Amino acid sequence: MSTFKAKVFVTLKPSILDPQGRTVERALSHLDHGNVSGVRVGKYIELTLSGSRAEVEAQLKDITENVLSNPVMEDARWELSEQQGEELVGA
Amino acid sequence: MSTFKAKVFVTLKPSILDPQGRTVERALSHLDHGNVSGVRVGKYIELTLSGSRAEVEAQLKDITENVLSNPVMEDARWELSEQQGEELVGA
Amino acid sequence: MKTAVIQFPGSNCDGDALHAAQLLLDQGAQFVWHTEAGLPQGTELVFLPGGFSYGDHLRSGAIAARSPIMQAVKAHAERGGFVLGVCNGFQVLTESGLLPGALSRNRDLHFLCRPVHLRVENTGTAFTGTYTKGQVIEVPIAHGEGNYYADPETVARLEGEGQVVFRYVDNPNGSLNDIAGIVSERGNVLGMMPHPERAVEALLGSEDGRGLFDSLKGALVSR
Amino acid sequence: MTQAATLRDRAGTFGLSTEEFDLLVTRIGREPNALEAAIVGAMWSEHCGYKNSRPLFRHFPTTGPQVLQGPGENAGVVDIGDGWGVAFKMESHNHPSAVEPVQGAATGVGGILRDIFAMGARPFAVLDSLRFGNPDSPRTRFLLNGVVEGIAHYGNAIGVPTVGGEVTFHPSYQENPLVNVMALGLLRHEDLAKGTMGEVGNTIVYVGSKTGRDGLGGAVFASADLSNASQADRPAVQVGDPFMEKLLLEATLEAIQAGVVAGVQDMGAAGLVSSTCEMAYRAGLGITMDLDLVPTREDGMVPMELCLSESQERMILVPVPGKEQELLDLLAKWELDVVTIGQVEGHTNYRLTWRGEVVCDLPVDLLNEAPKYTREGIESEEIRAKRERDLSGVPVPGDLGAVLTDLLAHPTIASKRPIYQRFDHQVMTNTVVVPGAADAAVMRVKGSGMGVAATSDCNPRFVYLDPYAGAAAAVAEAARNLACVGATPLAITDNLNFGNPHRPEVYYQLERAVHGIADACRHLNTPVTGGNVSLYNQYTEGDERVAIHPTPTIGMVGVLPDVTKRATMDLKGEGHTLYLIGE
Ligand SMILES: Nc1ncnc2c1ncn2[C@@H]1O[C@H](COP(=O)(O)OP(=O)(O)O)[C@@H](O)[C@H]1O
Predict the structure, then answer these.
(1) pTM of the model
(2) Which residues are registered as beta bridge partners of D555?
(3) What span is annotated as the signal peptide, if there is one (chains A, B) (predicted)?
(4) Which listed site, B57, C166, D28, D449, has its alpha carbon 20 to 30 Å from D223?
């Protein structure tokens, strides 16, 4: 049994309005950052899972798709890395 | 002048309680994912910037530290990659 | 007391702030749009109202804190002028560095609208002179991100210097040390999550917020 | 010919029956193109065209000295005195909320608020009437939590207090919850605005968010049966942005008050098409619009998408002739997308161009005059048997105290505080009677001594057993709730949530409920100034279609000449006497 650190990225589907991104983009342009475009704001979730790699991978896929994101309007992807000992803490 | 795609990750400082992370963790444990721990919910922001690499790097650092995150309670890091032609769209 | 109520896009307690200011401070209280470079001549109180400036996008108060008028508000505060930030106004104050700390999501993650009891901790400020120390007042809250946070040294300093002005009797949102409102070191800038401007008429349930406005008026006279 | 035959074959995908498609061909004397068929389908849908319910509406009393604006506009308006009027209306967002509760409910709030400020009124209160299935099921918890979150998200952010509502639970709503939202707005009589194109030569201004592909075909979707197929419809989620709407609200009201607006309407169901079609119809004129000018959020959008997208937070404004620039300048301050996309013409057609070609050219009348269906209702034998059941044999429980605590513990009856405390019910500092203090809310009218009271009510179980008496009782309950806070009832809006009207037992419920409402309103002198219909609220269970309990939600508005005289239901002190009045 190992310990894994997962990072999950949840973004709104490209076709869905991102009011937050739109507002941030406009605010940046008022702050003299007019060269910034395509701002999208999503979620970034870190979690730790223990188990065998195969189990954890299947589980993470399930969690990502069914709990951490709303497939009706969001896309999600994840990264998984095995952790040794104390390294777990910190990003 | 080039076009760059930036990804910014904003997380609560480790010392700060993350009620959202805790709620997700509790929900997961009710859903038979008791092996999940250390859930932290942060923000993931994508943006596109145009300019020279040096300019854009300085600008992104500024935006990340001074607008996209609040140093009182958040940590932030960013990744920058240059984009070619049509690749910009999507991702 | 000449009052300027700052309007940001998305502010929604701006009208309530103006109403209370006109009722209790000065008929001539007026709105100031966020793109203005300066405050009206002779402004004595800047009122940063509640609401959802910029839709609370990114972080509540974050974008408003970076708008042009805030330079003038900072200069006003540095001159010793009074600044009152309520709810979103408090968030704007912390985001702009006029007050220390930050406000994050409520402990239970939900928006909460209800009357709460506040203990007046320091009556030596311009905002609290007409209250008595330890007095418990009823003032409504209406926020989703009112959970006050600052690092331990800052909190210790706030406590030590008497900058914690209002404390929740029954903490609704998880704020450190039950902090509901704080003043700046000089005492001229107050930020609080509860809405005193919603508690100035008996018809609406409580008049306990009047003391704050009465105090301000008194403070101006004794200056 | 082959292409037309194909179109006819798939008339259903545009929400048209084959008969309706043939009717269309006869009326225009040619085959429509696909865009035209889709536009007609949307305009003739129940949501926009009320084809099944409109024939029943004539039973409603709609006039009275207090009525400033009756049915037919974005919202009804009543006179409350001193030059003040109250605009109010209720609307459902049932199907979107079943698919995505947070955004479904949020955009429901956004939509009804636009109806209110399109009348020139400043929204000042929201009430929400919610129905869910079994309170213990995870799905109900998911839906309830999401819907409350959505209403809070939108209403709190835009700064309109949510001052009341109701929440009831019954298994018939298990898959198909009801989310009915009522909004009230305050206006000076002289600011009353209309959804009209005005006169020939006027320009048509699009303002608000850009148009995306979201919510596409939502009008058709909202009228279709909710079944497992709705899983596939899921990308049809629209995301609302209360911040954008707040800007739109302020900009629209500022423009109306500045006297530069001749006509205004929000883009709701069937988006750009339904708003501009209705405005043209009210003016009795044709229009031409250039679809290339529609601000888009995505590249490569086609006319069908531009026309029918239900992207939120968009309005159509028609400037007063000569004040075009003034209007555009005023809107610019609010940083909204603003573009002049067309003009009002002397002809009577609805004409759209795209890339230099006419892509739609249909009579405005045809679009706005959906075929009407008067169906025959037959009472369900099963329900009649339930109603007529002899109850004399039902034993009286021995321990009535225990029954009382059981009743109080039922989620339908228990305190709704955990819900309403998530809504800002005090913003605007007008709420004199807050949720929980009485069964109706009271808001003061600043600058006058008056108060406005509002409530929403319906007991669906009663309506199920006896649609006529149950619906009449909903009106009576609303009136009692207003009386109990000290208000005089003025008028109602209704939201008729029923099953599939093609089923005789459902049509029976609809028809009888309409009569019940109409008669009660006549007795109480509370005309109907507007409303909304949501049909096809049912789902497939095995092979069977299960309709929800018929739910004609009544929203009623009243006035208190002196708001300080309002009453609340808490007992005020020891030694006071309690009276029971009535029968
Ligand atoms: N969904 C809701 N949103 C806002 N307020 C609500 C909601 N549901 C109920 N309320 C408020 O809670 C109080 C009690 O409502 P309810 O339980 O329906 O009372 P009753 O059954 O006596 O009519 C009322 O003030 C009502 O307006």
Answers:
(1) 0.92
(2) D456, D493
(3) none
(4) D28
